[in-house]
Design goal:
Strands 3-2-1-33 form a 4-stranded antiparallel sheet, with no helix packed on it. By secondary structure, it is mostly beta strands.
Length: about 475
């Protein structure tokens, strides 16, 4: 069936879409030696038939300093597929630190996007009382929704900014008055089941400075899922995952099938994957289905090192789960045909803090070797991941957030982050490095940069929602 509007009719149709040729990803200079320069949006060539394959082909600098570009979304996605008046032509790019939101024109010249509009911080603050934006999703009605994590003093406060999909003005808060969870971060919605579920990072006044374990113990980070009535915009249930087992739930993914009443969420600090699901009673519950044990270590800040699950993806056919352990450095692939019993089928190490040439020693275990590509050692650990629509290529970057990069991987802040591509066996499982693809953001013309989330112009596993 021909596409009516943006995206694809179904997730399985998306798997038959064209191969990605370029990707966009924000590059950050904050907390590096080049912090006097603005962040920028990089266009990277991922077409193996192109003479500029595996290189940055365009850089769009932002007009302000210190924004901390982070995650991005679209003005329209597959949720608007049935509306031929909608086009996926604007990348929504919130700034984590400044609360500024950039609207990027990716249609006029996809290789060289430009700034179409800027939502200034004062407009966001005056109309919503919110700060520290994170995840952006387009809605089926044409609006754009952005999760936030702070109040005007950057204390903890979960909420959502609603943007007009035409002129990108701030319409106000999405959530009903008085329905603000203590913490915010990511979210995913399923209108067929009248539900949205949001996750929790922590208080901006805590995490923006770096990570202090004592602040988790003092209640400045979250451990719950927040369940919303999608139609009423009200918070109707809080699922406590546990202080020890559900520490800092970050990225959340419903299964792509819009009829599904379940999904998965990654808890960073406790390094667990929880399955959340609708019960026979009609409310929602969660159960732990994957546990990544911490490693007993020497010469590190703590006696045990968590994996620190920081990004997760589900393939378009809902068959595989992928996630990254930023501190341990590995990416894992699980068969989730049975979502209650995921089965590990692939694993690959991309840097990390436990390589055998470093100061950290893992007690009683063999340590992975460092990764060298084109003669350069990869600093940082596997972090943001993005899967091709057909499920055969996984792209990975190594920067988390500049303040935490500086704390845990200072060498990366000095020498720049990396982007790599993993070949995926999506029939029986397995991950292998494509050594022909390697983007070194340490070689950027403006100096070493920290590259973050990866986004395809045609939509992907973490941007598109089906209604």
């Amino acid at each position: 069936m021909a596409c009516k509007g943006p995206g694809y009719r179904t997730p399985l149709d998306a798997m038959k879409g064209p191969r990605e040729k370029i990707v966009y990803l924000p590059c950050i200079y904050r907390n590096t030696s080049n912090s006097h320069k603005p962040d920028y949006l990089a266009t990277v060539d991922v077409d193996p038939e192109s003479p500029t394959y595996s290189t940055v082909v365009h850089r769009l600098p932002m007009p302000y300093l210190g924004d901390e570009l982070h995650h991005s979304g679209w003005n329209a996605c597959s949720s608007c597929h049935g509306d031929p008046s909608k086009q996926r032509n604007r990348l929504i790019l919130p700034s984590l630190v400044s609360t500024r939101v950039y609207v990027i024109d990716t249609a006029t010249n996809p290789l060289a996007p430009s700034i179409a509009h800027i939502v200034e911080p004062n407009e966001v603050k005056e109309k919503t009382g919110l700060t520290i934006p994170h995840t952006s999703h387009c809605l089926g009605d044409g609006h754009i929704m952005i999760s936030t994590m702070g109040d005007l003093q950057e204390n903890a406060k979960g909420g959502f900014i609603l943007l007009d999909g035409k002129d990108f003005s701030v319409k106000g808060n999405w959530e009903a008055n008085g329905h603000n969870p203590e913490f915010g971060y990511d979210f995913w919605y399923q209108p067929r089941h009248n539900v949205m579920i949001s996750t929790e990072w922590g208080s901006p006044n805590a995490f923006l400075k770096g990570f202090n374990p004592k602040e988790y113990a003092n209640g400045l980070y979250g451990h719950s899922l927040n369940v919303w009535d999608w139609e009423k915009h009200t918070l109707k249930q809080r699922i406590d995952l546990g202080v020890n087992e559900g520490a800092i739930p970050l990225e959340i993914r419903f299964l792509h099938n819009p009829d599904a009443t379940e999904g998965l969420v990654g808890c960073a600090l406790s390094s667990n994957i929880f399955r959340f699901y609708k019960t026979e009673r009609g409310d929602w519950a969660a159960e732990k289905v994957i546990d990544i044990p911490s490693k007993k270590v020497e010469n590190w800040v703590l006696p045990e090192m968590p994996g620190l699950i920081t990004d997760i993806l589900i393939s378009m056919d809902d068959r595989y789960l992928y996630f990254s352990n930023w501190l341990h450095g590995d990416i894992r692939q699980y068969d989730i045909t049975d979502t209650r019993n995921p089965r590990l089928v692939g694993q690959i190490f991309i840097g990390g803090s436990i390589c055998d040439d470093g100061d950290v020693k893992v007690v009683g275990e063999k340590q992975p070797q460092p990764l060298f590509v084109n003669g350069k050692r990869v600093h940082g650990g596997a972090q943001m991941i993005q899967l091709s629509l057909d499920g055969k290529r996984l792209y990975v970057s190594t920067s988390l957030y500049s303040g935490w990069d500086k704390q845990f991987y200072p060498d990366m802040c000095n020498s720049g982050s990396f982007m790599l591509q993993i070949d995926v066996n999506n029939e029986t499982g397995g991950l292998s490095l494509n050594e022909k693809y390697f983007v070194d953001f340490g070689d950027e013309p403006g100096g070493a940069a920290l590259a973050h989330e990866i986004r395809y112009p045609g939509g992907d596993c973490s941007s598109d929602v089906w209604l």
